[in-house]
Each structure stands twice: as structure tokens, then as C-alpha cells.
Design a protein that fits this description.
Layout: H1 2-14, H2 82-85, H3 95-99, E1 119-121, E2 124-126, E3 139-140, H4 141-147, H5 155-161, E4 180-181, H6 183-186, H7 206-209
Antiparallel strand pairs: 1-2, 3-4
């Protein structure tokens, strides 16, 4: 069974079903990588996935997951709903897979990134030295939308706009409901056709407007 899963994962990494494959992105850390990359390892999938003896989380993850309590979540905006202000991280959050590479901790706010130009700070993520982009994760989006329905699109509307049947996930906070806002709600880790790994292009703010319907004019 594990062998079958490993084969599927490698197919996802190198296949042609996506607009671009991971091999064409900065997530390719092998010798053929376009960004930071190894000088000796030729396999693409192995940096993130392990077919045997996975270290944590889901997706046969090859890295040790960080301590969820070591991150200070983004709660700074005065416009956040009560649901967003109740954001929390534990071992159930898929975002920890991303943060196993893309996150410094409260004890170490310096870079702990694949991309040496990126840093994680208390206020959010600073992409390639540009203005920090802050967005809450680890909260129940469906609950947040019900608390502010004139400003946020429904989960169904958001998923349709972003081209997926459901872009939200499960966590201990949402229980059996797939309504948790996570890093992968917005980002496709295997496809960088719309940098930085966005699900759709943000031309005319289309990406942001998928959720923030009150900003449409």
C-alpha cells in the first residue's frame, strides 16, 4: 500500500495533469531545481515525501513537524471576525507541513526557510524581501463567514472561484467539517503557474475577491 502511495506522489510531482509540475518550481530542490537546490540529489519528491518511515503529519511527510505552539498566529487586524480571532494550531493543522520548511519559531525569528530571501516573523510572511503579506490561518472559515456574510463569500462560492470542489480542510477546531482555513486553501504546492503558488492568478484582484466579496466594485 505504501509503495502505491509513493508512486502516486511521484506522479503528482512530475506528471502533466497540472498547469506546471513541481519540477518547474522553487519546490524542486533537486539538482534540476530553479531556486535553492541540491548539488547531488536528483530525485524531486524525496525532499518532502518519504515512502517509508514518514516523520510526521499526512502525505508521507519527510520532515519533522514543528511544535504548533511555537507559532504566533496573525491576529493583528481590527477587522477579523471572532472566529478568526479564535485561530489555533495543533498537530491536526495541515499548515504545519508548510511551516516545517517555511517557518521560524517565536524563539528563533530568523530565517528557517527553503528560500533564503524569505522570513517568518510575528506579523506574517515576508516574501522575497517584499512587503509582508499577512493572513490568518487555523480558523473555521465557515463560522467566520456566518459572522460576516456581507464581506466574506460562502465556502462553496470560494471553492468555485478558486477552481476546486473544496479548498478548506479539517482540524481539531472544525471537527468533522472541512472548513479550516489553511496555507493550502490559497496555495498549490505542486504548481507555481500563478506565483507564489496561488490557486488562480490575482489579475484584477480575482484571487483575493474569491473570499473578500465586499471589495468587489
Amino acid at each position: 500500500m505504501k509503495l502505491s502511495i509513493a508512486i502516486i506522489l511521484c506522479f503528482l510531482c512530475t506528471g502533466t495533469a497540472m498547469a506546471l509540475s513541481v519540477a518547474d518550481s522553487k519546490h524542486n530542490l533537486s539538482t534540476t531545481g530553479v531556486g535553492v537546490h541540491s548539488t547531488t540529489v536528483t530525485q524531486v519528491c524525496i525532499f518532502c515525501h518519504s515512502p517509508h518511515n514518514a516523520m510526521g503529519g499526512t502525505s508521507l511527510w519527510a520532515r519533522q513537524l514543528p511544535d504548533p505552539s511555537s507559532f504566533e498566529l496573525y491576529l493583528a487586524s481590527p477587522t477579523l471576525t471572532p472566529a478568526a480571532l479564535s485561530a489555533q494550531f495543533d498537530s491536526s493543522n495541515v499548515s504545519l507541513l508548510c511551516l516545517s520548511c517555511h517557518g521560524g519559531t517565536l524563539e528563533n525569528l530568523g530565517p528557517d526557510m527553503v528560500d533564503p530571501n524569505g522570513t517568518w516573523s510575528k506579523s506574517g510572511v515576508n516574501w522575497d524581501g517584499k512587503t509582508p503579506v499577512n493572513h490568518p490561518v487555523g480558523f473555521d472559515y465557515a463560522l467566520a463567514q456566518s459572522q460576516n456574510p456581507t464581506k466574506l463569500g460562502t465556502p462553496l462560492q470560494v471553492s468555485a472561484a478558486l477552481g476546486s470542489s473544496n479548498v478548506f480542510l479539517r482540524s481539531s477546531l472544525t471537527g468533522t467539517n472541512y472548513s479550516s482555513m489553511e496555507c493550502s486553501t490559497c496555495h498549490l504546492v505542486h504548481d507555481n503557474a500563478n506565483p507564489p503558488f496561488l490557486r488562480i492568478a490575482n489579475a484584477n484582484n480575482a484571487f483575493c475577491l474569491a473570499c473578500h466579496i465586499d471589495k468587489k466594485y
